[in-house]
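Fresh eyes needed here. I'd like your take on this protein's tokenised backbone:
***
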Amino acid sequence: MQGTTVRRVGLVLAATTLTGVTACTSQDSSDGPGRGDRAAHGRALAALRSAERATESARSARVESTTTMGSLMSMTADGTLGWSDGITGTFTIRYTGGTVADTMRRLGTTSMEARYLPEAYYARLGEKFAERTGGRRWIRYAYEDLDALAGGSGAHLGDQMRSTTPNQSVKLLLSSGDVRKVGEETVRGRSATHWSGTVAAADVTDTALRKQLTEAGVTTETVDIWVDRRNLLVKKVEKARTTTGPLTQTAHYADYGVPVRAERPPASDTGDFQDLVREQSGTP
């Protein structure tokens, strides 16, 4: 029974912990009322809209991120991501701490490869896990299945995974009523403008995102982004408090326009998430 429970938890964790790559992204934006100097606020919004357009038009980038979610999880994610026609990409996910890393360690691995495709993503969990799933090394997660994950706790997870592009962080910052220019700084040798703001969940206009933040216990979060001279996002930091503790995510973006490949794993080596859950639970 314990082995079955660990395997089922592993299936779920492989899905839910990938939200660390995409945490707190937005699909809509709102100017919000100006505070203080309205002229400066207007210039800030205009600059951010330029960054949003330029970043979206770049269509792909190399991403490095670190995420910490209280005592639950800390992880890194490195790879390439494309968004010209849906989401495509390949990432290496490493669990570096927290209870999730402990659980994954019992499953025989603390890292996995993840491949994003427009209709689903695939996670490779390693040889030891494959021994418990009929030799299949890959799990396929259809986005619609993720929306119903764990009795509703995965609500909007599919949308979240489809909203991983760096311009989404710019959109989230555009929802802030106090967005401000911090100054000029250097990020990994590149000159960049630092923008910052606080986003209140109640003020987010996108209904799905607002519900997602509320259900996670997030009332407000701070968003910082760094934009280079080509109006491309080169770094972002998001911080919030959730029911599982403080959430912090830092991401660096580079090599905009990089070629991106994400191939579907062989069908013979792939198990569908829903089928594997039924197998582990004994449900016909």
